[in-house]
Amino acid sequence: MNTHIIIAEDDESIRRLLEVSLAGHGYTPLGFGSAEDALAEMERTAPALVIFDIMMDGIGGIEAVRRMRASETLRHIPVIMLTARDTELDKIVGLDAGADDYITKPFSVLELCARVRARLRRVEEKREASALILNAATREAHLAGTPLELTFKEFELLKLLMDNSDRAMHRDALLARVWGGDYYGETRTLDIHIATLRGKLRDLAPDTSYIKTVRGIGYRFVGGAR
């Protein structure tokens, strides 16, 4: 389970308090004094959750969350907003920007850790509900607990992508491994099968994208599988 939590808080005393408290609850926190530095770190290592202070020098927490939600790689990461503001409008603005939860200062460390646990529990429940499972021995596939009807080539293609999870697979390698020498002259074969696979996966898990296009290379499989 991913325990990495990023904190963006320009008040060093609060940032240290959060780091110590979260570490004491079994998480791996990493604090930054600016949202820019926090976003840069997220691009290198995707955290399980982010805590943003709403008011910081440079870009604030609201803008940082908007940038996360516009990013293909960061949009799914849950965000808790932390701020001294306590008006209903401020909360609405934060939530509308894409924050998942909102805690005002002064705050209870125990309550914040409880909110973190609850948010990560929901993420795990969602992940399990949308799990993609392939059984190579029986050649059966299930997504979100429902049988997934695949052709022979679709099963082989999906298995190859899953076996190389989070690694970009070149088009030629996919074609050679799944179709052997039969693909020559049929360069659209792979794209057609990928499109069909995506459609079948989307039918059962519309909010989850398993196969990503890697420009100039091919495709890669991302997350949600067992």
Structure description:
The chain has a 5-stranded parallel sheet with strand order 2-1-3-4-5, sandwiched between helices. With 226 residues, it is an alpha/beta fold. The mean pLDDT is 90. Helix 6 packs across helix 7 (171-179) and helix 6 packs across helix 8 (189-204). The protein has helices at 12-24, 35-44, 61-69, 88-97, 109-129, 152-163, 171-179, 189-204; strands at 4-8, 28-32, 49-53, 79-83, 101-104, 132-135, 140-143, 146-147, 169-170, 211-214, 218-221. It has 8 helices and 11 strands. The protein is 44% helix and 19% strand. The longest helix has 21 residues, at 109-129.
Gist?
The protein is of the alpha/beta class. The chain is built from eight helices and eleven strands.
